[in-house]
Amino acid sequence: MKTDTLFYRLFLRQPKLALELLGLDYPNDSYQFSSEEIKQTAFRIDGLFKPVTDNPNQPLIFVEVQYQADNDFYGRLFSEMTLYLYQNKPKRDWLVLVIYPHRTIEKKPSIEFLPFLNLPQIHRIYLEDYQNRSDLSPSLEFIRLIASDKQQTMSQAKALAERLDKIDLDGLDLIETILVYKLPHLNREEIRKMLSVYEIKLQDTRFYQEVSAEGEQKGQQEECIKLLNRQLRRKFGVQPELETILQSLPTHPLEKLEDLADDLLDFKAMSDLETWLAENT
Questions:
Q1: Residue 161 has pLDDT above 80, yes or no
Q2: What sign results for the dihedral spanned by CA atoms 215, 216, 218, 219?
Q3: Can you give the C-alpha Rg of the chain in angstroms?
Q4: CA dist., res. 55 & res. 214, Å (int)
Q5: What's the first-to-final CA gap in the chain, in angstroms?
Q6: d(Cα 170, Cα 12) in Å, to the nearest integer?
Q7: How far apart are CA 48 and CA 52, in angstroms?
């Protein structure tokens, strides 16, 4: 499971997840999640929440999801972060959110970077701490679902879906996305049947449209194109080259569009998108 990609997809759709992990009380639409290249270096900020309001108290939020042990992780993270701040001079505070599955993955930074780790701006989250908690908000329940073991996953997904008074249709789509990543041995029809507890609501979501025999191929393609338009504009901004590519998306089959939606978060530049399209056309 490409868990970092899963988290980045969730953060794109629901910035509130990261804000609640950090204990920040800002509106969901007050941040935009993206990745940022650092000029004239090989560095790249994979996850960055940038405030979209004029509130000077809202900090920049650097996000890293680390599922592999890496002795150089903290050195690379702090180097990328400080270089980004030097180049961009955002004139606002900053925070760092690091997400680990469990503590055994984390490696101690080398001595020259050790003081950074003790800064109050550095927040480390361990998913293992969320597995058995029962005091979570609806948003943080998605984190618990990601952290669940395979025996817990489906029962927790059903319990979360039953809270329809607190979870909207977008929340049901998030449950769908998590299950697709966590249970790759199940096909979409099997997942739909397992989640039949909220079948009446599910028929209004994009996931149901994809698996329902009554769903139309054209409608599925249009929904996928809308999603790609939002994701690609957030990632690369509005530019003529991208708009030309977006106009060509309806010419691609649905299967390719779905593959692109999965792969685009790994792109580092527009050239990666262009290469992908050339190889998959």
A1: no
A2: negative
A3: 20
A4: 46
A5: 26
A6: 12
A7: 12
d(CA 143, CA 180): 15
Average pLDDT estimate for 16-32: 89
Distance, CA of 217 to CA of 46 (rounded, Å): 33
According to CATH, what is the number of the domain 3-134?
3.40.1350
- Using CA atoms, how far residue 86 sits from 18, 41, 81, in Å, is 24, 13, 9
Full-prediction pTM beyond 0.70? Answer: no
> At 6, which amino acid appears?
L
Domain map (residue ranges) of the chain? 3-134, 148-215, 225-271
Residue tagged 């009554």 (tokens): 214
In 3D, which of 129, 131, 143 has the Cα closest to residue 3?
Answer: 143
pLDDT of 213 over the 70 cut: no
Q: How many other β-carbons are positioned within 10 Å of the β-carbon of residue 225?
A: 17
In contact, 123 and 21? CB cutoff 8 Å: yes
**CA neighbor of 27 nearest in space, from 55, 8, 6, 3:** 55
HEC string of the chain equals CCHHHHHHHHHHHCCHHHHHHCCCCCCHHHEEEEEEECCCCCCEEEEEEEECCCCCCCCEEEEEECCCCCCCHHHHHHHHHHHHHHHHCCCCCEEEEEEECCHHHCCCCCCCCHHHHCCCCEEEEEHHHHCCCCCCCHHHHHHHHHHCCHHHHHHHHHHHHCCCCCCCHHHHHHHHHHHHHHCCCCCHHHHHHHCHHHHHHHCCCHHHHHHCCCCCHHHHHHHHHHHHHHHHHHHHCCCHHHHHHHHHHHHCCHHHHHHHHHHHHHCCCHHHHHHHHHHCC
Q: From the CB of residue 178, how many other CB atoms can be counted at a distance below 10 Å?
A: 22
Contact 228, 247 (CB under 8 A): no
pLDDT digits (tens, 9 = 90+) for 76-117: 999 999 999 999 999 999 999 999 999 999 999 999 999 999
